[in-house]
Amino acid sequence: MEEFDSCILIITNLTDQSSGISIQGTILIFQYFLLGLLREQFYQVYIKQVMASAYSYSIFFDFIESYLPAGFSNINPDDPIMQRLDQVMYENDQFITVANLAEIKFLYVSEGIRQMIGVEPTQLNPSHFVEVTHPDDLSRFGLLRAQTFIVEKEVLETKTGSALVSFTIRLRNPAGVYFNCLCQAYFFFSPIPHSAVYLLQVISNVDSFEMRKRGFHHYKGKDLSHFRFPDQALLDIGPAFSSRELEILKLIESGMSSKEIADKLFLSVHTVNTHRRNILDQCGKDNISNLIYELQEQGLL
Fold this sequence. Notes:
The chain has helices spanning 2-14, 23-51, 58-67, 80-91, 112-117, 126-132, 138-158, 232-235, 243-253, 258-265, 269-283, 288-298; strands at residues 94-100, 105-109, 162-172, 178-190, 196-205, 218-221. By secondary structure, it is an alpha+beta fold. The longest helix has 29 residues, at 23-51.
């Protein structure tokens, strides 16, 4: 722990005979410094507990039930449901958007978007998310946007049920600083007020959590137990590929051989083949083609 090491160094210097500071004084300084560290650790734990508190995503379903029949128009800010929803989102650094995917139109955007990414709620359009996405995440974000219409089609064909696409990405706040964001996209079909697939997105700032050193959070499916308030277990769901492994997978998908990949990335063929074996071992697969198909289905390639 760097802060603790710094503290020990300070104490060592202070207790040098030339310092003239008593042992008791040194102990007091150490206790004060340690108290500061404990306070910081408590704050971090407290934030995570708040983020994983008893708030339930049922409030979002209450919101849908109340305002879907009117197409999410004429939302009443004095409605107890809206007051509770706004309070929950404010306390947990979130905002939501609701869209009719048939019309590719945002029907409602909460006020929190202004603080989180600097966009006025009434002016949001899809290009805004592209503008504030970290450059290194743009390629993956493009794949995820394409999944929106694939999932819409799947839900529309059944005219029942729902689906969830959940992922982490880095967005830029109004101060120009990128932060880790969890986007939970909940798709659902409704015959009212117009027969269409609707999309509720819950966007949360998850900077207080530990981000994965390899890979990123990603989930696509129908298990709505993952549509919940962010916690560490949720954020740990997803592929554990390194950026290099993902790069190699994309090149394999494009039809390149190991030799061609090695030449393009200035690697040896042996290194490329080692990456291929490691990728299969991580996933418990024995065929790279099947893995690539599954990753395409998930919107990762």
